[in-house]
């Protein structure tokens, strides 16, 4: 977030300088400013993911190990939001898992994954299996095609009851997601049932997400 804000301030400074000298501001610079504003807006999700992972990890540690009930944060192992999840667990001095994927372009595991819990997959389908099979909850932060792929596969498996266990699905950032996916329109056009909207829940703050997860995980798994 600091880097994104610093870049925006730098661009705004350039614009002010041009305006003070009575010179026109190039469209390219205005476009750069608009992009930087989006980056600042999106960067808050990184901080939120760090905080949520920290809260979950600290709560998990408080449960103790006597009954074997512990919850471990798992991410895709890469940068961005994936890194944020592992970082939050790291800040809480807990374990965290990274399920990396080998890609044509370089993607290194982030530095916050517990070393012995860092895994790399060649196939996406196998990676998704290990995301889902041991999971008790899924928190979907804003993302692109890969995130959508994972979200809709889980929702399909829940809808068709291929997943029989209780799986909590939280979609984080309602403003973003309601622009990206119009779930209500899917109901309107009859491609999903209204009850399918109960397969997930929108959340907008780390504490809201944490309290829901804590209560539901306690109810179903402790």
TrEMBL record:
Catalytic activity: AMP + H2O = D-ribose 5-phosphate + adenine
BP terms from Gene Ontology: cytokinin biosynthetic process
Keywords: Cytokinin biosynthesis, Hydrolase
EC number: 3.2.2.n1
GO molecular function: AMP nucleosidase activity
InterPro entries on file: LOG, LOG_fam, LOG_family_nucleotidases
Taxonomy, superkingdom: Bacteria
Record's keyword annotation contains Cytoplasm: no
Gene Ontology CC, one term: cytosol
KW Heme (keyword) present: no
Enzyme class (EC, first level): hydrolase
Family statement: Belongs to the LOG family.
Protein name: Cytokinin riboside 5'-monophosphate phosphoribohydrolase
């Amino acid at each position: 977030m600091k880097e994104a804000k610093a870049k925006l301030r730098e661009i705004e400074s350039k614009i002010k300088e041009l305006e003070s000298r009575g010179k026109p501001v190039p469209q390219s610079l205005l476009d750069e400013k608009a992009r930087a504003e989006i980056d600042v807006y999106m960067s808050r999700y990184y901080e939120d993911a760090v905080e949520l992972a920290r809260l979950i990890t600290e709560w998990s540690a408080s449960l103790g190990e006597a009954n074997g009930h512990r919850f471990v944060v798992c991410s895709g192992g890469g940068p961005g939001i994936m890194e944020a999840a592992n970082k939050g667990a790291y800040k809480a001095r807990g374990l965290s898992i990274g399920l990396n994927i080998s890609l044509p372009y370089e993607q290194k595991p982030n530095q916050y994954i517990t070393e012995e819990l860092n895994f790399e997959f060649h196939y996406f389908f196998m990676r998704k299996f290990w995301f889902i099979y041991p999971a008790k909850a899924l928190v979907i932060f804003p993302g692109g095609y890969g995130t959508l792929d994972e979200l809709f596969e889980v929702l399909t498996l829940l809808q068709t009851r291929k997943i029989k266990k209780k799986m909590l699905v939280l979609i984080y950032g309602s403003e973003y997601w309601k622009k990206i996916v119009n779930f209500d329109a899917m109901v309107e056009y009859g491609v999903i049932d209204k009850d399918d909207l109960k397969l997930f829940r929108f959340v907008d703050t780390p504490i809201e997400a944490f309290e829901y997860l804590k209560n539901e995980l306690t109810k179903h798994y402790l």
